[in-house]
Amino acid sequence: MTTIANNQNQLLTQSSWRAALPQQVLSWLPLTLFFPVGVMYAGVLLFALSLLISGDYAQKWQRIKTSPMLLPVLALSAVTIVVALFQTRPAGEFWSAFWHYQTYLFLLPFLAVGTGVVDGKAAWQARAQLVLFGGAIYASTLFYLGAAGLLPPTTLFRSYVVYEGNKSILLGILLAISAGWMLHAWRWRKDQHVVRAVAWLYVVAALLLFAKSRTASLLLLVLCTHMLLRNVRLNTRTVILAALLGATLFGGVKYLAALPPPATCLTKQMVSEQQLNPASILAQRAICTVHQLRDFNQGKKIGEDGMRLEIYQVTAQIIAEKTWTGHGIGNWLALYQARAQGMMSAAMTTPHNDFLLYCSELGVLGMLALMGIFCQQLLVAKKMQDSEHQERAMLLAMLGVTMIVGAMFNAILRDGVFGMAFMILLAIPLAGVSKKLK
C-alpha cells in the first residue's frame, strides 16, 4: 500500500510540474524582450513546447473560450480573411502582410495558462513583473555602458550602442512601460521606498538620455499622467494644477517654436558631428519635433527626421481613394512608392501608423476592428478594478494606452518585433480574466 501511495504521489508531482511549466516559462519571457529578437522567438517556441507537454487541453481551451479578448481577436482575423478573398493579393507581399495581421492570435495560447502558482509561492504574474523590472535594469545598465564607450557593438549589444530602427524603439517603449508599472507596484505595495525610487530614476534617466526614442519619451509622460489622473481625486485644486500644467506645456511649445532651427535633427549627426551630450540631444530633438510640425503645417520642406508627416499625408490620399473597402492586404507598399517618387520617404516600407495602414489595406471595417481590440483592452481594465484582478487592472490599462499611442507613430502590429513583445506583456494582466467579469 505504501508503494502504491508513493507512486501516486510521484505521478501527481510530475503532473503538477508539467501543468505549471507553461506558467514558469511565460513568467521569464519578458526578459527575452531586451535581447536580440531571435532570443524572444526562441523563448516563444519553448513556451509552445511547454504548453504541448503540460496536458489538460480541455481546461486550456475553456480559458481561451471564456477570455474577453477572444471575440475581438477573431473579428479582426475574420475581416482580414474577407478582404483577402475579395481584394487583390500582390505576389511577394501578401502572405507576410496577412500573417502580420494575425499577430493577436498569438495572445490566445498565452491566455491558456490562466492564473496559478509558481513554486507554491506566488502567482506567475508577480514573477513576470519582477522579471520585466529586472530586464529594464539590465537594459538601462547597457545603455549607460554604451554611452560610456564600454560596450562592444556585437550582435548581443548592438541595439544599445547604435540606433537600429524598430528594435531600438521597442527598447525605449519597454523602458517606458517598465517605469509605469514600477510606479504602480510602488503605490500598491507601499514599501522599500528608497530602492523603488532609485530603480525608477535609474530606468527613466536611461530612457530619456540614451534610448533616443521620442515615442518612448512621450509614452513615459502619458503613462505617468494616466496613473496620476486615475489616482487623484478631481477637485478645485487638481483642476487648477492641470490648468497650470497645460498652460506651461503650451508656453513651452511656443517658446521652442520661436527658437532658431537646429543645424540637424538626426541623432547620428548630433553625436558624430556636433559631439552633443545626451541631455543636449534630448533638448534638440524636442526643438526639432516642434519645428517639423510647424513647417509641415505651413507647407514648408521638412527634414529627413520628420518624414513621418510626409508619409501620413500620402497615405491619407491612398485611403481617400478606397476608404470603405481598402486596397487589399499587402498593397500599401506599391501604392505608396508609386506616389512618393522623388520624396525623402520613398524608400519607407510601412506608414509608421497602424491606424493608417489598417484603413488603407482593410478599409474602415479593418480599422474599426483594430480599434475594437484596443477599446476592449481598456474596457476590461476598467472592469478589473472591482474584481479579484484589481492589482493588474492598471497594468492592462497602461498597455492599452501604450498600444494606442504607439500605433499612432509606429507599426507596432505590422512588425513582429513589436507585435510579439506586446502579446507577451498582455498575457501578464489578462491571463485568468474571464468575460463574465463584472
Detailed description of the structure:
- It is found in: Membrane.
- Pfam families: Wzy_C (PF04932).
- The chain crosses the membrane at residues 33-57, 69-86, 98-118, 130-149, 169-186, 193-210, 216-232, 239-257, 355-381, 393-411, 417-434.
- Keywords: Membrane, Transmembrane, Transmembrane helix.
- With 438 residues, the protein is an all-alpha fold.
- It has one domain (2-430).
- 71% of the residues lie in helices and 1% in strands.
- The protein has a two-stranded antiparallel sheet.
- Helix 17 packs antiparallel against helix 18 (390-409).
- Mean pLDDT is 85; it is low at 1-14.
Write the layout of secondary structure elements.
Elements: H1 2-32, H2 37-53, H3 57-65, H4 70-86, H5 94-100, H6 107-111, E1 117-118, E2 122-123, H7 124-147, H8 158-161, H9 166-189, H10 193-210, H11 214-231, H12 236-258, H13 267-272, H14 278-297, H15 307-321, H16 332-339, H17 354-384, H18 390-409, H19 416-430
Antiparallel strand pairs: 1-2
Helix pairs in contact: 1-2, 1-7, 1-19, 4-17, 7-9, 7-10, 9-10, 9-11, 9-18, 11-18, 15-16, 15-17, 17-18, 18-19
Oligomer: single chain
SSE sequence, one letter per element = HHHHHHEEHHHHHHHHHHHHH
The poorly predicted ranges are 1-14
The percent range for helix content is: over 70%
Largest sheet: 2 strands, antiparallel
The count of DSSP E runs of length 2 or more, i.e. the number of strands, is 2
How many helical stretches? Answer: 19
Q: For the terminal residues, how far apart are their CA atoms?
A: 48 Å
pLDDT averaged residue by residue: 85
What percent of residues are in strands?
under 5%
Q: Tell the overall outline.
A: globular
What structural class should be given to the helix and strand makeup?
Answer: mainly alpha
What Rg, in angstroms, do the CA atoms define? 23 Å
Number of domains: 1
Which sequence of strands runs across the widest sheet? 1-2
